[in-house]
Every structure is written in structure tokens, then in C-alpha cells.
Amino acid sequence: MSTLRPGGRRFPRSVYGVGTEPDPRFSLANERTFLAWIGVALAVFSVAVGIESLAVNLEPTLRTSASLVLMVAGLGCAAQAWWGWRSVERALRLSQPLPGPRPGLWLTAALSLVGVLLLASVVLS
Q: What pLDDT band is residue 21 in, cutting at 50, 70 and 90?
């Protein structure tokens, strides 16, 4: 039996190789938040595909633009899931303050832009 250093073989070492093991409840809550962001990303991707494939009566350029904005927003949500989980887990392990919510502004801006594009598409068709 070997003794592993903190973090051992767990991935990513940049998270598990620092600090001390936090209360499991906090780590599990952080994981649930990660999964919620993944769910949001999948929902945003689904709306993008739905707009592009089902909204045939909308002006094509604006419809495609709205779908592309949603695809980028979905990628941003997936990236936020990872980076948010990583930064919160590190903060928990190092007994540092939790990072503030970063995705709110860009997600609001992306969804507002999609709303404007779809509204313009409806008006122009």
C-alpha cells in the first residue's frame, strides 16, 4: 500500500493537489451546480437547433444568426460549468472566499441579442 500525496491520482491535480479536503456537502453542492450548468448548456443548444430547423417562416439570415448566438452561448455555459466548478472547488480547498458569479452578464446579453434577432425576423417576414 502506497501513500499518495494530497490529490493523489485524482484529476485535475490543479484542484485536488492543493489545500485540504473540504466538507463533502460543499463539494457535492458544487458538483450539482456543475451539472446544472451542463443542463443549461444542453437546453440552449436544443433551442438553437429548434430555431434553425423548425422556425422556417422567419427571415433566414436573422434566424441563423440567432441560432449561432445560442450555440456560442451554449458553449459558454459548458465552459462556465467547468471553470466555475474548478474555481469554487479550489476556493473551498484553500479556505478562500468563493468567486463571484461571472456568467450572468454575458448570458443575459446573449439571450437579449437572440430576442432582438427573433423579433426583427418576425417583423421582417
A: very high
The closest alpha carbon to 15, from 85, 89, 97, 95, belongs to 89
Task: Please give the mean pLDDT across all residues of the chain.
Answer: 89
The string of DSSP codes covering 19-88 is S-PPPHHHHHHHHHHHHHHHHHHHHHHHHHHHHHHH-TTS-HHHHHHHHHHHHHHHHHHHHHHHHHHHHH
Nearest to 41 by CA among 11, 19, 73: 73
- Asked if residue 6 has pLDDT above 60, the reply is no
Q: Where are the domains of the chain?
A: 22-124
Measured CA distances, 16 to 2, 34, 53, 92, 118 (Å): 18, 16, 43, 11, 44
pLDDT given at position 7: 52
Backbone angles phi, psi at 98, to 5 degrees: -70, 145
